[in-house]
Amino acid sequence: MTKTSSVHPSERALLGVPAFWPMNLAASLVEGESELLVRNLKFVEEEIKIHGELRPKLATPNQVRIELRSMSLRDYGTPGAGLPTLVDAPYAGHTAMIADYHKGQSLVETLLDNGCRHVALTDWKSATPDMKDLEIDNYLADMLTAVDDLGGRVNLVGLCQGGWLSTMLAARFPDKVNALVLAGAPIDTDAGNGPIKRMAHEHPLSFYEELVELGGGLMQGKFMLQGWKSMHPAQHYITDHVDLYEHIDDPSYLKKEETFESWYENPLDLPGRWYLQAIQQIFKENRLAKGKFIGLGRRLDLSAIKCPAYLLAGAADDITTPEQVLSAAKYLGTPPEKIVQKTVAGGHIGLFMGARTLKEHWPGIGQWIAAQ
After folding, report:
1. DSSP 8-state class, residue 84
2. Does the bond joining 204 to the residue before it have cis omega, within 30 degrees of 0?
3. What pLDDT does 264 receive?
4. Does the global pTM surpass 0.70?
5. Strand, helix or coil at 270?
6. In terms of residue numbers, what domain contains 156?
7. Which of 323, 372, 325, 314 minimizes the C-alpha distance to 348?
8. Which end of the chain, N or C, is surrounded by fewer C-beta atoms within 10 Å?
9. In Å, how far are 3, 100, 181 from 367, measured between CA atoms?
10. At what angle do helices 205-214 and 9-16 cross, to 10 degrees?
11. Residue at 76 is within a domain
12. How does pLDDT run across 134-179, given as a tens digit for each residue?
C-alpha cells in the first residue's frame, strides 16, 4: 500500500487489513491504483458532509402508522382497503427510499397503481450507540409487531436483506403471510459464486469484528459505503462525475441525480451484534436455508411456508446472484405451481429503483399480489 501517513488512524487500520469488505475486490480490479483508494476513503467522508443536508425523502404521500425503536411503519394508499401489502425494505446501510424513490419511479407507487390499495413500508432507522447490541430477534419481533398492527395477516414483499427477514417471519408465523415476494433476496447464501459469498467465506469473523470495533460497536454506514463504491471504483469516482459535468445544464437530470445522491450518500449505521450475527449465521453458515436458524426461540423451517411465492432476480446482480434468490424454491413448502420464478435484465439496485423494471415487471407483480 502506498503512502498512508496523511490518513486518519482508523482509516489506516482498515487499509492494513488484508481485505476490507469489499476492498479486496476493488484492489484486484484496479491494480496499481491503491493511491486512488486511499484518497477515496477521505472522499467518502467529504461526500457525506456535503450531502448531509440532502436527507433522503420518500416520494409518495404517506403517514407514520407506528414508531418503533428500529423503524417507522409507514402507511400508503387506503388503510383498511383489502389485505395490506407490507414492503420490507433492506436494512443494509441505506434508507427505505429504495422502495419509494421518485415520483413516477417508485415501487410503492407501482404497487398502489396495480391492485394493492393499502401498502405499508418498513422505514428502518439508523442504529444509535445504545442499539449496538440489538440482534436479529429484535428486528424480527418488530416486524411481527408491524404485521399485527396491520391486522395480523399481510402480503409480504421482501427486498434484498429485507427478504431474508421476511422469510424468517413467514417461517416463524406462516399464518400471518398470505403471499410472499422475494426480490434480490439472499435466501440460499451458498448458491452461485458471487463476490459477497466469496468474501463472507474467505475472511474470518474476526475481520468483521474489527470493523465493528472501529465503529464503536456499530457497523458504520460510511464503511459500507466505501465498500460498495470500491466494488465499481471507476464508475463511482470517474464516470459518475463525468456524467454530471456533461449534464450540468439539464435540470431534469440534475434533479434525479440529487435525489439519488441524497439516498446513496446518506448511509445508515447498523447494530454491531446484528451485523455480526448476519455475517456468521446467514452468510457464512447459511443457517436459514439449512433450517438451522433459531428465530424467536424456535428453529425456522422454510418448508413451513406454504403460501404463494414470487421470486425475482436480476441477471446482472453481483450483490445477490440469481441463484441465491431462485434456490429458495427448493426449500419452501409452497407447491411448485404456486411459485413464480423470474430473472430480469439488470443489476441489484435496478430491481427496486430501475425505471425499466418498475415499468415492465412490477405492475405484474402488483397484480399477482392482488390476485392472491
Report:
1. -
2. no
3. 64
4. yes
5. strand
6. 63-192+271-371
7. 314
8. N
9. 56, 18, 12
10. 170
11. yes
12. 999 999 999 999 999 999 999 999 999 999 999 999 999 999 999 9
